[in-house]
Amino acid sequence: MSTKAITSPSCSVMGRKIDYIAGQLWKALRAILLCKNRWKNRSGLRQDITARVSPGATYTVSTYVRVWGPVRGLSSVQAQLTIWVTGGRKFVLIRRVNASKDKWEILEGTFSLQTIPGRIYIDFEGPPPGVDLLISPVVVYSTDLDEHESGDKINLPISVGDNIILNHDFMGGLQFWNLYACNGFVVTEANYFEGVQPYSGKNYCVTLDRTHDWQGLEQEITNRVSPGFIYDFSAFVRVWGPVQEAAKVQATVRLEYPDLETKYIIIESVIATKENWEKLEGTFSFMTMPKLATIYFEGPDPGIILLIDSVVVTCVSHEQENENVINLPISIGGSSIENHDFSDGLHYWELDNCGGYVPKSPDYYKGVQPIAGKNYCVVLNRNSYWQGLRRDITESVSAGTTYTVSTNVRVWGPVRGLSSVQAQLTIWAPEGRKFVLIRRVNASMDEWEKLEGTFLLESIPGRVYIDFEGPPPGVNLLISPVMVYSSGLNEQEKKIRNRIDSPISSGGNIILNHDFHEGLSFWNLHACNGFVATESNYYEGVQPYSGKNYCVTLDRTEDWQGLEQDITDSVSPRSTYIISAFLRVWGADQESCQINAALRLEYPNFETAKKIIGRVTVKADSWVMLDGTFLLETMPRQVIFYFDGPAPGVVLLIDSVVIEEHKDSVEVGSSMDKIHEDNVGNEAYTNHISHH
């Protein structure tokens, strides 16, 4: 058989012959294979094995690898599966090792697939660009014992205070550590890197030749961690190379599950410099045991060298250690939701791609006292607005019944003013995810804020989750005991019926607190931070357009994030409304920004429509008036008025918002070429993590 059986993405291959090995499933090289001219870390050797693997079986991959070229120290080499599924690729790491120029290194690991969802390739890759990869004969064979399902990887409990990181001070070189798509080495007294002294001890690790920010040092910790436990992390980091002043360094936990899903928990990040060692510390926990758990360092820009010293991870407590508190389930739809008050830690709850725990008295988080009962949940390490606390309530709700959700929330972290927090339903329907907003409020660091709302599902098309989320990345979320209960009356349908039968009178502004003289009362921040500027603290010296106040929305990471108000109870179908507001931006790199005034229309069948009702181009040097009109042909379940449009990072200033009903004949859309209405469905709520 010729070498056509093997593909080599993004590189050239030199090899003599490929034959079958008797009794083996795999084809192997009878000579060394050399991958040259590699220009990406993922360039290497590949073979399609789709037709030769079966679901449920465990396979062992075994070979020897070596590197050649511009390598100082050791270089990362890995075997992994690439699975082409509908919508993209999934990756399953088999094993990663540190290879050298001096000797052959065994690369051996196992994999098992529960299903075969698409084409499956085995890849050998990993060294930085320019480094040649040598691969000896490869053997892949099935084993009689399915390790992934036999339960032999039972985690032994770690005593509180024990460091679960092996070779934490690098006294054993890079033993137990792996370089991830980069090169690296351990320095000793004889060869300190650029004269940099260790923070402690006599050694530290240097990772270099990094071409992506996610490349760095890692250690697998699967057999030394367990779900439901809280772990403290600390390390000392430093950077070197083309650094202007400082660079971000981050510690992350990667959790890989048998269903090909991968989750990431950001432990913490720190700004590191060339001048000093910086302490990177934080906590993490998870509720479901993964197939593989790996802790790693990442973050600096490509080309920056990362120095790491003294890595410590200790188990500090179990989230279910308080046995003296009796948990009373609450009534919901005739069944019960257990642990609504977090007395059993985070049991039954799920942290959505973030960290969190339930603090116990007297060691409450930042000294914050509970508002009800003895417990609350702290959600940490959030790197996107949608990350937070989640609960599957599918078995506890019934179609056609109205439920009330009630809790108190608070935020902590880099917040200037107030921050957005929301409760919503996420429904996994056959055609995709649907979202139902329950309530959104503005939360602060100073006090607990009531978060209460209702929801009604006309049908149960799939799994139903309740989510608590919303603050910008980096802001921690505190959640008090959550009450969910059914009510006898269908309040939402009654409201809709009352609005149709009794339209409001014309001539008045339906926007409550339109000039912000009551702060942000009646307004909500959507996935961003914000505050009201007054005479004593005008933002960057900007004077109001009129009156004495205006709203500032900032820390926006998406263009749709901004300020909103629920006007459901104030509008009626078949009536025409006129809108006006004065807007301004700050911090824009470009000369001008386009801003929309829009309505989000949410219907009982999970459909969501966006209607743009006004549009204007705004600059930083002056206030600009936005105007428009709208008319609703039918009455939705909820009508939210909001502003969106500036690019992420742009600060939006809003003053004097007016919406009035107009009884005279008005050509709707006269101030615009056309009113734009879209079925936006999952607008702004696509939970996506890309990390490869």
What can you tell me about this protein's structure?
The chain has 692 residues and is mainly β. The protein folds into 4 domains: 10-15 and 26-142, Galactose-binding domain-like (Jelly Rolls, Sandwich), CATH 2.60.120; 162-318, Sandwich (Jelly Rolls), CATH 2.60.120; 350-490, Galactose-binding domain-like (Jelly Rolls), CATH 2.60.120.260; 506-661, Jelly Rolls. It is built from 2 helices and 46 strands. Strands 25, 28, 30, 31, 33, 37, 38, 40, 43 and 45 form a 10-stranded antiparallel beta sheet that branches. Strands 5, 7, 8, 10, 14, 15, 17, 20 and 22 form a 9-stranded antiparallel beta sheet that branches. Strands 1, 4, 6, 9, 11 and 12 form a 6-stranded antiparallel beta sheet that branches. A hairpin with a 5-residue loop joins strand 18 (247-256) and strand 19. It is globular and about 85 Å long. The two termini are 34 Å apart. Keywords: Hydrolase.
Structural key phrases:
Jelly Rolls, nine-stranded antiparallel beta sheet, disordered C terminus, mainly beta, 692 residues, ten-stranded antiparallel beta sheet, 4 domains, 2 helices, single chain, 46 strands, 2% helix
